[in-house]
Request: fold
Amino acid sequence: MKNFIDTIKNIWNIEELKNKILVTLGLLLVYRFGAQVSLPGMDYTKLGADFAGNFQGGGIGNLLNMFTGGAFAKASVFALGIMPYISASIVVQLMGIAIPYLQKLQKEGESGRKKITQITRWLTIVICLVQAPFYLWGLGQLGVPDEAFMMGKGLDFIIPSVIILVTGTIFAMWLGEKITDKGIGNGISLLIMVGIIAYMPQAFVQELASNASKPMLILIEIVIWLAIIMASIMLVMAVRQIPVQYARRTASGGYEKNIFGARQFIPLKLNASGVMPIIFAQALMFVPSAIGKGLGSSAAGQWMIANFQDVFGLWYNLLFAFLIIIFTYFYTAITVPTNKMADDLKRSGGFIPGIRPGGETGEYLDKIMSQITLPGSIFLALIAIFPAIVGNILGIQQSWALFFGGTSLLIMVGVAIDTMQQINSYLLNRHYDGLMKTGKNRKVVA
Reply:
């Protein structure tokens, strides 16, 4: 405890770090205030129990509401949250594989990155202009009574509301970018994490209320929750270190490849794709139930509807885990350019001992990535479906079970580690003890 207090004092003694943390907290507070402001023309107190029921349990509505910090279910000005920007970023990243112009921008350094950011912003607006009308139309379909629409459902309400929803997302995007520039940590990720954390107390209180007479069960749940957090930390930080030998530059300016060259490592992450495979898989999980509805009242159609609309069901989670493993391989293949890594290594005078520089090094790195991606993808799939496992075995409330794994837990763990490492860097640069005992480069080696 004393070391923790000393660390807080050290953080407060660094003026630049203190200001960054205060800016970050202030902007996050603005975002949370905005999430409580309902759209003009909407009476929040009359949204109705039927509408609120769509965001309870473990359905897709619950997930959307969680990522927006409850704004989705409150018809807030931030109801769309930051997810349109995330969707736009994913689309631009995937388009970069096939579109030469984007590939060129990716190679232009800082200037190219700024142009890609601008393209992402415009695409975010386009996505919002599509999502906002559907969200407003869906309010009535999801059970919001007519009396909640104080201005009616005409264009006088729709057009201003669409503009406000789009502006809310753009403002949230601006807050995230300002946190990244002026604060500490990745701003967009922090906005998502804060929204998830804001939803956690309500879910835990509901679980306490339903099991008030079973304190031992609550204790077991907390122990399991802490254990899965530790497993998620291991998944996020685990790397395979590939030894690299660098040639030593001689006094004449040439390179001398001998045992006196610098010895370093290439860290290949066990889970290089992060939470993206879960997001991709989750986006496709509505397809089986949609096919079932298309088949009508047939036996196959009813079976698909019954088994693939329950996010805690057996068949749903088996397919979910399979898709996560497939998408982990796919996303790792497009985000870890082993051939480029081999070329950069060759140009810098480095080589992997026993492996020829160039193409052979690229093949070797690709082989290693394939080997470590398999256990990484299986581990990721297990964490993703763990909420269903504990929900069915322990009978945990579905809203609380969602925090036992999946996208929400991995986002919280990943963002927390990244933010701690940035704070740790400031402390170590000022010769203070860091938040992590072994420094910012602490890794779990797979």
Observations:
- The chain has a mean pLDDT of 81.
- Strands lie at 238-246, 248-249, 255-256, 263-269, 350-351, 444-445.
- Residues 292 and 303 are 7 Å apart (CA to CA).
